[in-house]
Amino acid sequence: MTDDASAHAREEDVADSYDDLLATLDMLETEALRKVESGRVYDAENERVRIKWIRIAKDVVAEKRKVMADRDLQELTERIEQLEERADGDVVGPSGVSS
């Protein structure tokens, strides 16, 4: 496998792992919100359980935001690397014109 092909395969693996992780977090978020919204509170113990599900939902949303930010940074890093590879050899002067 060439370096370019192996790099492309690694990029796809990273993208797939982010997608898988986000899908799992989506499922957890949906379940936690379902537990919070559909539960009936009859006593103090049920209320404590409901509060725990609210905390879980909050934590899942926070983790999802982190994963999405990491994925975005990874994509930007890959784009920058591609641009640098294309620009390799091109020398740009102060006026922005290739020499």
Notes on the protein architecture:
By secondary structure, this protein is mainly alpha-helical. It has a domain at 13-76. The chain is built from two helices and no strands. It has helices spanning 3-38, 44-87. α1 (3-38) runs antiparallel to α2 (44-87). The longest helix is centred in the middle third of the chain and has 44 residues, at 44-87. It is rod-shaped and about 70 Å long.
Provide a short characterization of the protein structure.
It comes from Haloarcula salina. By secondary structure, the protein is mainly α.
Uncertain parts: none
Beta strand count: 0
The helicity comes to: over 70%
Tell me about the largest β-sheet.
none
Anisotropy-based shape: rod-shaped
Beta-strand content estimate: under 5%
| SS class | mainly alpha
How many helices?
A: 2
The ordered string of helix (H) and strand (E) elements is HH
Rg: 23 Å
Q: Give the termini separation.
A: 35 Å
Q: Mean pLDDT, nearest integer?
A: 83
Domain DUF8136: 25-86
Pfam families: DUF8136
Protein name: DUF8136 domain-containing protein
Sequence-ordered SSE layout with sheet pairings:
Elements: H1 3-38, H2 44-87
Helix pairs in contact: 1-2
Key traits:
99 residues; mainly alpha
